[in-house]
Amino acid sequence: MRDTPLVSAIIPAFDEEERIEKTLRSLQQVREVDEIIVVDDGSRDQTARKAEPLANQVIRLPQNGGKGAALTKGVEAAAGTVFLFVDADLEEHARLCGALVGPVLKGEADMTIASFPAARRKGGFGLVKKLARYGVRRLTGTTVEATLSGQRAVARELMENMGTVSEGFGIEVGMTVRALRNGFTIKEIPLPLSHRETGRDWRGFVHRGKQFAAILGTLIRLWRQLA
């Protein structure tokens, strides 16, 4: 590792005791990563305990505050000039996220976003993705396909100029809109990633319903702020 960390990997995690170890071991293989920070977002299981031997720092939040709040805490603690955001359930696929870092370190983009391949099984009807893409396009004039992807490399300067980002499921949309509206560049990078998928069952529809509501709320707030 370099004396001064350049890339800080930040992993928000909530009840991920079954997957967090594989994810962190995979991240340890990414040569671009200088430090690994796990933010345990009020987990009710052993996520934090399992993460501690494999991360440089584990931040325990007393209660679940949402993904946005967890990422904010991670950024505040990170020493890097580039932040690599990785979902806790990627497992062995986390090692592929190193491909997101290069363009940001080289100044080719201020933010890179991993574009996932098509889902292996049918989930919902694509309403959440369509809403996110439509909202970003209306607010910025730019079409971003992987608007909801949580796997991103982001320059510190972008995060510092972004201001407050939305919490919960709306954070990726909020980050994308604020980055583009402030003149930062975004590059999408296709990667053969996969993580836990929700199906067409009651639990899956409830999850996507919460996503839809959160993203719609984020877009309304952004519209009011930026209009």
Task: Write up what this structure looks like.
The mean pLDDT is 88. It contains eight helices and seven strands; from the N terminus they run E-H-E-H-E-H-E-H-E-H-E-H-H-E-H. It is globular, with a radius of gyration of 16 Å. A seven-stranded mixed sheet has the order 3-2-1-4-6-5-7, with helices on both faces. 48% of the residues are buried. By secondary structure, it is an alpha/beta fold. Helix 2 links the parallel strand 2 and strand 3. The longest helix is centred in the last third of the chain and has 25 residues. Helix 5 packs parallel to helix 8.
Spell out the blueprint of helices and strands.
Elements: E1 7-13, H1 20-27, E2 35-41, H2 47-51, E3 57-61, H3 67-77, E4 82-85, H4 101-105, E5 111-115, H5 127-140, E6 152-155, H6 156-162, H7 171-181, E7 186-190, H8 202-226
Parallel strand pairs: 1-2, 1-4, 2-3, 5-7
Antiparallel strand pairs: 4-6, 5-6
Helix pairs in contact: 5-7, 5-8, 7-8
Family: Belongs to the glycosyltransferase 2 family.
Cofactor: Mg(2+)
Organism: Kroppenstedtia guangzhouensis
Can you write the helix and strand succession as a string? EHEHEHEHEHEHHEH
- As a percent range, the share of strand residues is 15-25%
Q: Report the principal-axis shape.
A: globular
DSSP E strands, number = 7
Strand order, sheet with most strands: 3-2-1-4-6-5-7
Overall pLDDT metric: 88
Query: Alpha-carbon distance between the termini?
Result: 45 Å
- Poorly predicted regions are none
Provide the gyration radius in Å. Answer: 16 Å
- The helix content is 25-40%
Q: Classify the secondary structure makeup into a structural class.
A: alpha/beta
Tell me the number of helical segments per DSSP (H or I, 4 or more residues long).
8
Sheet bearing the most strands, described? 7 strands, mixed
